[in-house]
Design brief:
Elements lengths: L5 H7 L3 H21 L7 E2 L1 H11 L6 H11 L7 E2 H12 L6
Helix pairs in contact: 2-3
Pfam family, one: S_100
GO molecular function: calcium ion binding; calcium-dependent protein binding; transition metal ion binding
Keywords: Calcium, Metal-binding
Length: 101
């Protein structure tokens, strides 16, 4: 079995992974702040803002039950809002294709 060697890949392609990852992180942060900026709390998403983000950016239709489940899973500090670190968990869920059913 041939195992992928990330260090060897980076040695031969030093900017390809770094630039694409940096670009992806920047885009995720920009999308987060676009929707977080809709109310007076510019650094967090409330349930309605998260719903708008998912429906506009991911073409996901989110009912009340799904939003309640997502907020419960993402809101680690239980303040009723999602900060950018908590939002990162959603990106991980999406990458793993997890959802609230």
């Amino acid at each position: 079995m041939n195992q992928f060697n990330m260090d060897a890949f980076r040695k031969h392609h030093p900017s390809s992974i770094t630039m694409s990852l940096e670009s992806a992180v920047q885009i995720v942060a920009e999308v987060f702040h676009k929707y977080a900026g809709e109310d007076e709390k510019k650094n967090t998403l409330n349930c309605e803002e998260l719903k708008k983000l998912l429906e506009a950016e991911c073409s996901k239709k989110c009912g009340a039950g799904k939003m309640k489940c997502l907020m419960k899973r993402l809101d680690e500090n239980k303040d009723g809002e999602i900060d950018i670190v908590e939002f990162g968990a959603l990106i991980g869920m999406m990458a793993k294709k997890e959802s609230c059913s």
